[in-house]
Specification:
Layout (H helix, E strand, L loop, with lengths): L1 E5 L10 E6 L6 E2 L4 E6 L4 E5 L4 E6 L6 E2 L4 E7 L32 H9 L18 H11 L15 H5 L13 H16 L2 E9 L1 H18 L6 H14 L6 E3 L2 E3 L6 E3 L1 E3 L2 E3 L2 E2 L7 H17 L4 H4 L4 E5 L18 E5 L3 E7 L2 E15 L5 H16 L2 H5 L2
Parallel strand pairs: 12-16, 16-17
Antiparallel strand pairs: 1-8, 2-4, 2-7, 3-6, 4-5, 6-8, 9-19, 10-11, 12-15, 13-14, 17-19, 18-19
Helix pairs in contact: 6-7, 6-9
Length: 404
């Protein structure tokens, strides 16, 4: 039976997608639910699985093409896997049959991992996955490559000599022109949109994290044992932001035309860096979550981003965003708004600095905070007081428990 492989229904507000890469060639056998091709939208990479066991007999749309929902991507001949190349595919070079993992199922992996395997011509079946349900992660591939990098070099072999011409050729001055990915292009578009539509202004403050670090150090082992998740700094900042947003609802609002939309809920966007660019998955109703639920939610999103399995539903919405440039060593920055949100909080690196406390110079772990806000609906007084509220909560964490 012949089956048409079509572009699935795309997420809401997404009109088309780019076909990134095929993972099968005409004539190769496929297993039910095995990923055949990756489609990249403005925010996420979608996988198109095989609807049945069979042989891929024809590819209708090539890599790099733009597709819409319902377009026919390929033709699959359902049935028992056949080793020979299908007639339609005989116009192309013969392709060896796929190596099938014991049990008939291909190893689970993300599009990013699959591309890494293809780039280095590695067989997924010989790499042991450390992820959930045996999923192969990028670190698994990198570890495998590292452990096998020296296998073909005999001990004591001299390093290969350079050709004489290579020495006198001078430094390379090559250039490479690479098109933006859809995700990078969309990020660029949204950043420019924010600059053009919002009256952005940034206010700064600094926070002494002595008590937060002491509290975290005292309870981190018990916390992890009780909740099976590590206690990080982000949950403290999320909780402090929640209390500040309750006091200053305009910071949690957004503009729609000539109206200001006030939200009685707090959906917190948490910026997560990926190979393709910055993504901002959203923790829903964060004001109702515990420290452990916040940490678990952030960890789950980070794993999805690394594996390339983040969904559009994870990235939409959000009423306020936190971004942590400190993990990369940033000392100070002015974050850009995530439209249509009216504010974003920037965290930075924690540094030991001399501070005057009660008339004495002491060394304290300090962090600069930056909040960029839309001056159209947030006054400077509100912005400053909002940031002071976060500072007060973090310098006296008991406030978070008492909600004062």
């Amino acid at each position: 039976m012949t089956i048409e492989i079509k572009v699935p229904q795309l997420p809401e507000s997404v009109t088309d997608a780019t076909l990134v890469s095929w993972h099968k060639k005409p004539g190769e056998s496929v297993s039910r639910d095995e990923n055949l091709v990756d489609l990249e939208t403005d925010k996420v990479v979608l996988e198109v699985p095989a609807p049945a066991n069979g042989t891929l007999v024809e590819i209708r749309i090539k890599d790099g093409a733009t597709v819409t929902a319902g377009d026919v991507l390929a033709i699959l001949e359902a049935g028992d896997v056949v080793a020979s190349v299908a007639p339609v595919a005989q116009k192309e070079a013969a392709v060896p049959a796929e190596v099938v993992v014991e049990g008939g199922a291909a190893p689970k992996m993300s599009p990013a991992v699959r591309r890494l395997l293809e780039e280095h011509d590695l067989d997924a079946t010989i790499i042991i996955g450390s992820g959930k349900e045996g999923r192969i992660t990028k670190s698994d591939v990198m570890d495998y490559m590292k452990s096998h990098s020296d296998e073909n070099v005999a001990p004591g072999d001299p390093a290969p000599e350079l050709e004489v011409g290579a020495i006198s050729a001078g430094p390379s001055r090559n250039e490479q022109r690479v098109p933006m990915t859809r995700l990078r292009a969309r990020i660029a578009e949204r950043m420019v949109e924010a600059q053009h539509t919002a009256a952005m202004l940034t206010t700064f403050n600094e926070v002494d994290l002595t008590k937060v670090m002491s509290l975290r150090s005292r309870y981190k082992d018990a916390f992890e044992k009780e909740h099976s998740v590590r206690l990080g700094f982000m949950s403290f900042f999320a909780k402090a932001a929640v209390e500040a947003l309750k006091k200053f609802p305009a910071v949690n609002a957004s503009i729609e035309g000539n109206d200001v939309i006030y939200h009685d809920y707090i959906d917190l966007g948490v910026a997560v860096s990926s190979e393709k660019g910055l993504m901002v998955p959203v923790l829903r109703n964060v004001d109702q979550l515990s420290f452990a639920q916040i940490e678990s939610g952030i960890n789950a999103f980070a794993a999805k981003v690394r594996e390339g399995s983040i969904g559009m539903e994870d990235l939409t919405g959000g009423t306020f965003t936190i971004t942590n440039g400190g993990v990369f060593g940033s000392m100070m920055s002015t974050p850009i708004l995530n439209p249509p949100q009216s504010a974003i909080l920037g965290m930075h690196a924690i540094q030991q600095r001399p501070m005057v406390v009660d008339g004495e110079i002491v060394v304290r772990p300090m962090m600069y905070l930056a909040m960029t806000y839309d001056h159209r609906i947030i006054d400077g007084r509100e912005a400053v007081q909002f940031l002071v509220s976060i500072k007060n909560s973090l310098e006296d964490p008991g406030r978070l428990l008492l909600q004062v």
